[in-house]
Amino acid sequence: MTPRACLLALACAAPLLAAPAAAAAERPKAGEPAPLPSASLAPAQARSPGRCEVSSRRCIDFEGDFSAGSAQAACAKAGGTFGPGQCPREGRLGTCFVRRPGSAEKVLTRHYAPGDTKALRRECKKAPGSAWLAR
Q: Cβ(65)–Cβ(48) under 8 Å?
């Protein structure tokens, strides 16, 4: 697997204990969280070509050397919906940060409740160049 493929593998893999990507288009069932709110976007802290909403429990921020086109392509591969801004901070369990060695491309997979933080952390650490960040 190439370093870029490893970097994007986390963004493209199905989230641990999360609904399938197809469920992102469905309305939430009773007791489930609502889709990620567009109004609560975090202010841009780094150059960001956009965000990718994969499900109500997972959103991906692309930062660094990603162009809007490469971020959109990675989002489509992950089965998400690409949009402007960054993923919301509200309700975040943690972030799996992946940076390709020798590159400024950064993939920040944000995980939201409900979810098993310990299992998400273990899954994150499997990716080369990854780190789990609380919230």
A: no
